[in-house]
Specification:
Strand content: 25-35%
Radius of gyration: 19 Å
Largest sheet: 9 strands, mixed
Helix content: 25-40%
Number of helices: 8
Distance between the termini: 29 Å
Number of strands: 17
CATH architecture of the largest domain: Alpha-Beta Barrel
CATH class of the largest domain: Alpha Beta
Order of helices and strands: EEHEEEHHEEHEHEEEEHEHEEEHE
CATH superfamily of the largest domain: D-amino Acid Aminotransferase, subunit A, domain 2
């Protein structure tokens, strides 16, 4: 057992168990064929204790993904939400990343999922800034030679394990080339998203982000930022974004549960704006940080407190 897993608790098929007791067969279908589905959720420390950000929306997307893949989870939204809260509470963590995961707990060879048992686990682990110290200064990105998958190939609106092989390839390529992250284009060459993040650009005070037709995952952080920006009076446009618009943007940033709001200051070796995190990016990042830490009464409904 990994040292950092000592004493960790997870939820598996209805019970809180020790991490080292949560075992599955090595030939589990979802390990062989990438047939698992998952969510990524964060909890943050607040004055009232740990608070989970937009729990209901994440659980709803988890259920949608299961439906797309004809996977019967066997749990209601409330049961899953309660299980997530219980897992965070059992972990004793105020700040953590929460991973609900559903998989075919079957060790037979063969791709068919008919009649296979579905298991669900939930884990909560300590988690800081996804890009580490680079988040503060902004990151460098590479336009990937790999295109973002589209709904002719796999359902892009589902968070399934198999979809992320596409992301892994793009991220590996970017890091091998000296960049910190990739940006994927859609099949028609327009901007899609990062390997695990949605993308926004700022141009002349306007906030732009790829629309649903750009093969993006409809991120919950993305939705949150659109709502926040509009309430601040910032014009938000969802549309197809051409590749070259990245280079001429005033600001570019990623948004996602893990990445939160991460400025992008260089793409393909070209500085974005003045090569530093932009004013609007940092204003939105500060507002988002205040919201997730329970300091904004207007957004209190986005937090589920762990008691």
């Amino acid at each position: 057992m990994a040292e950092n897993a000592k004493g960790r608790k997870v939820w598996l098929d209805g019970k809180i168990v020790d991490y080292n007791e949560a075992k599955v067969p090595i030939l589990t279908h979802s390990l062989q064929y990438g047939s698992g589905i998952f969510e990524g959720i964060r909890a943050y420390p607040t004055k009232r204790g740990a608070a989970i950000f937009r729990l209901q929306e994440h659980v709803r997307r988890f259920q949608y993904t299961a439906k797309i893949y004809s996977m019967r989870l066997g749990y209601s939204d409330k049961e899953l939400s309660d299980a997530i809260v219980a897992t965070v509470k059992a972990s004793g963590l105020d700040a953590c990343y929460i991973r609900p995961f559903a998989f075919y707990n079957d060790d037979k060879i063969g791709i068919s999922t008919t009649g296979k048992r579905v298991s669900v686990y939930i884990a909560a682990v300590p988690f800081g800034a996804y890009f580490g110290a680079a988040k503060e200064r902004g990151i460098k990105c590479k336009i990937s030679s790999w295109r973002r998958i589209n709904s002719d190939i796999l359902p892009v609106q589902a968070k399934s394990s198999g979809n992320y092989i596409n992301s892994i390839m793009a991220n590996n390529e970017a890091r091998a080339s000296g960049f910190e992250e990739a940006i994927l284009l859609s099949r028609n060459g327009s901007v899609a998203e990062g390997p695990g993040e949605n993308i926004f650009i700022v141009k002349e005070g306007e906030l732009l982000t790829p629309d649903v037709g750009s093969d993006i995952l409809l991120g919950i952080t993305r939705n949150s930022l659109i709502t926040i920006a509009e309430k601040l009076g910032i014009s938000v446009v969802q549309r197809e974004i051409h590749h070259e618009e990245l280079y001429t943007a005033d600001e570019v940033f990623f948004a996602g549960t893990a990445a939160e709001i991460t400025p992008i200051v260089n793409i393909d070796g070209m500085g974005i704006g003045d090569g530093k995190p932009g004013r609007l990016t940092m204003m939105l990042a500060k507002k988002y940080d205040s919201i997730v830490h329970g300091n904004e009464r207007a957004y209190a409904g986005w937090l589920t407190y762990v008691r």
